[in-house]
Design brief:
Helix content: 25-40%
Number of domains: 2
Radius of gyration: 22 Å
Number of strands: 9
Distance between the termini: 45 Å
């Protein structure tokens, strides 16, 4: 698949290779593995020599633990479905240069803590893209059309389809901390990507529900305190409160 091909090519962009970028993001998710590639070898019996010969078959991706107590390399499939699900998301956030990125359920099969950290990665991706984007001089024909350019408003945006309250709560928390001017708990990479923080205007929360004429989209405004200014339809966050009280 494309994420694996990107990592195997391991091109260098800016100051780091793709594998180094992804390894750094995995570490920020408290996933204590770095990713690298090696030559996969297989042994074949050589009837002429009567012995086994090694043949290099292809490059393969492997994980190496960042814990010094654990040595050796591990195939990706040996680390469980959670790593396999989150790795394409991390690769996309680290390497995708498209103006608009769509991610479906990044929280699938991962720990709640990691779900929250994904929120930080998404914020950082948005901020990094905005910093790298430079104003362009647009040249149009006499009759320009909207397809001639991509509006600045959507550059660097990420659309996330999610059911994770952990992810949403992390984004709301970062809005509140920005308003308070409190960045003490922000990871260094997040502070560098978003030196001015994140404000409600950077976020749009849309709730989709069935309607009489198809799906109905409801926008849920967020204020500067990182709180919704209206109630969630369908009891999205209320289910957690029921369990507590």
């Amino acid at each position: 698949t494309e994420p694996w091909r990107i990592l195997l090519r391991n091109e260098k962009k800016y100051l780091a290779t793709r594998q180094e970028e992804v390894s750094e993001l995995l570490n920020s998710l408290t996933i204590k593995y770095s990713i690298t590639s090696r030559k996969r070898k297989e042994q074949f019996f050589n009837p002429n020599s009567g012995s086994f010969d090694d043949y290099v078959v292809e490059d393969e991706l492997v994980f190496k633990s960042t814990d010094k107590a654990e040595t050796g390399f591990r195939p990706i499939h040996s680390l469980g479905s959670g790593i396999g699900k989150i790795l394409p998301v991390v690769v996309a956030l680290a390497t995708c240069d498209e103006e608009l990125l769509w991610i479906e359920e990044p929280e699938c099969h991962v720990h709640p803590r990691v779900q929250s950290e994904i929120g930080d990665l998404i914020i950082a991706r948005h901020g990094t893209y905005r910093q790298r984007s430079k104003p362009e001089i647009l040249e149009f024909d006499d009759d320009p059309s909207p397809s001639d350019y991509i509006p600045d408003e959507i550059k660097g945006n990420v659309i996330i389809e999610t059911h994770s309250e952990h992810l949403i709560l992390r984004i709301l928390r970062r809005i509140r901390e920005t308003t308070e001017g409190n960045f003490s708990d922000w990871p260094e990479a997040l502070r560098e990507a978003c030196p001015n923080g994140i404000c409600p205007q950077d976020v749009a929360v849309l709730f989709v529900k069935p309607g009489t004429e198809g799906s109905e989209v409801i926008e849920l405004p967020v204020d500067a305190n990182g709180e919704f200014t209206c109630d969630w339809p369908g009891g999205f966050f209320e289910e957690r409160l029921k369990e507590f009280f």
